[in-house]
Amino acid sequence: MNLNSIVIILLSSFTFTQIRVIVAADNNVIDRLKADVAYLSGPELAGRNVPGPYGDKTAHWVAGRFAEIGLTPAVGDSAFMQKVPLITGLLDTAETMIRYRSSQPQGKNITCLSSWGLENGQGFYIFPKRLAPMDTSCKALYCGHGIVSGDLERNDFRDVDGCAAVVSSGIGELTPREAGRFMFTPFKAAAADQAGAAMLVEVYPPLGKDMALPPRIQRKSGEVNLPLVDLPETAAGFPTVHLFTDMKAQDISGIDLKVVFKDMNQTRGFNVIAGLEGEIPEYIIVGAHYDHLGAVEGDEQNAYYHGADDNASGVAGLLEICRRWHERNRTGRGLIAVAFTAEEDGMLGSRWFVDHLPVPREAVTAMVNLDEIGRRGFANMRDVQKDIEPDPKYAGAYYSAASPKLRDILRSAVHRVDLNVELEPVNNFSHFGDAGPFHEAHIPTVQLFSGFHKDYHSPSDTIDKLDFEKMSSMVDLTSALLEVLTQAENAIEFNPGIRVEKPHIPH
Ligand SMILES: [Zn+2]
Predict the structure, then answer these.
(1) Residue 431 class from Cβ within 10 Å (0-12 exposed, 13-18 middle, 19+ buried)?
(2) Which residues 6+ apart lie within 8 Å of 445 measured at CB?
(3) Which residues is 66 bridged to in the sheet?
(4) I need a labelling partner for 316 at 20 to 30 A (CA). Which of 40, 98, 283, 482 fits?
(5) Hey, how many other C-beta atoms are within 10 angstroms of the C-beta on 253?
(6) How much distance in Å is there from the Cα of 339 to the middle of ligand 1?
(7) Is the pLDDT of residue 417 over 70?
């Protein structure tokens, strides 16, 4: 135990049978975490965009830190780098078209038929998540405002499987508090995607002739020409369309959508991987993505997305874990530490890693992912809208419901730290970043998270808003969890048949 540590013994206020031994935050740890987050979220890395020079610079910096700590590469070349093939491309605005049909006859039984080209900058905007071209024609289903809420017992996407989900913009009669993150199109889109929709079409009132787009849309429209990134083998993605029309969303019965890309370019990113051998050739993977959103498009002050919590915090935590593990005795299983690339583009780095593991698949016991571990935050997005303070000690531990043993493992880790950790079994990790590909590969997976806040994916996710005491406790939690996982006697079962009936939906 470190000399600076103070052991505090607290008697649980609920039962006197339980004694919690908690190690107070170590100032050296906090200083290191601060220094790493400051560099990662600072101007030298300007938002860590992938692919791009700042993303590459971040990867090389992480590799340098691995070497400094004394780690050995787990894969590929001697520089800790795993090359991840990526493709970039631009949306061809002249060729990309939408056409929508209505069953409502207009005038003399003429069915309304309209189409727009994207080059107008008016009519519609599309945000494809993937680089796959598409030319599709499907039935449209009206899905209200695209809200899914357990509290409201409402699921607007219930019957949308195979159809285009057409929604009215905004939140209708709901208060922002009730709608939570479903105020925002990306969350409507994620829910529609999960429900099996072919695309999301959000219908806005028509734009006047000289009317500027609303600021939020304007900023978004800049993304149309941003390079999109994807792996070669990725299937057609899920498109999100903003459609400006005087037709009622309810009256749209069919959608034809053609999406074309140009200037396709082969490029690459890097996962950065180190191995920490144990006594036996089995491993726990511990990971955090290092990429973020880069520069704020069109900003003259060279503003960039700092991504201090998302996910400079996770990378700093990962480095601290590596340092501790390197100094400790090698017992039980080993660790494989990975800093992932291209998470923000759809977990491309972690997907590649899972398909190209540095060790045999059978040697991987579990995965622990760190994504946003530096803030005081809420357990759900809804509370972010309220005028209340978060529980300063809240932490979320999401784990594969298919591996119930993870709950016991987490419980024994949680007792060693001064945090209020909520254990949440999940059936899938589709909204949880790099945890997703591991869970999908039936690897027992845990994601640690310090809570939702209003600066998510905003240039205001800055270092001054982090709580380094809490972050240090999150690192202790990770460390305790890895300790239990590396020492666990048996393999951890993953049985996809085991599901939770009412999974926690964090919004
Ligand atoms: Zn993230």
Answers:
(1) middle
(2) 366, 367, 368, 369, 399, 400, 403, 429, 435, 438, 439
(3) none
(4) 283
(5) 17
(6) 12
(7) yes
Cα 166 from chain centre: 25
Q: Ligand 1 centre and the CA of 331: distance in Å?
A: 31
For the chain, the first-to-last Cα distance in angstroms comes to 39
Query: Could you give the CA distance from residue 94 to residue 314 in angstroms, rounded to a whole number?
Result: 41
pLDDT digits 0-9 by tens, 13-32: 333 344 455 556 688 999 99
For the chain, domains (ranges, CATH) are 25-88+266-487 (3.40.630.10), 93-259 (3.50.30)
Q: What integer pLDDT is reported at residue 229 of this predicted model?
A: 58
Beta strands in 380-500 (DSSP E): 394-400, 420-426, 445-449
> Which tokens in the block code for residue 370?
């760190």
Å from CA of 491 to ligand 1 middle: 29
The single residue listed with the structure tokens 């979320």 is 396
β-pair type (364-370, 283-289): parallel
> For residue 76, how far is its CA from the centre of ligand 1 (angstroms)?
25
Confidence of residue 411 (pLDDT cuts 50, 70, 90): very high
CA–centroid distance, residue 456 to ligand 1 (Å): 9
Bridge partners, 106 (sequence order): 110
In tens, the pLDDT along 419-448 reads 999 999 998 886 678 999 999 999 999 999
Residue 495, both tokens: 């049985």
So what's the ipTM on this one?
0.95
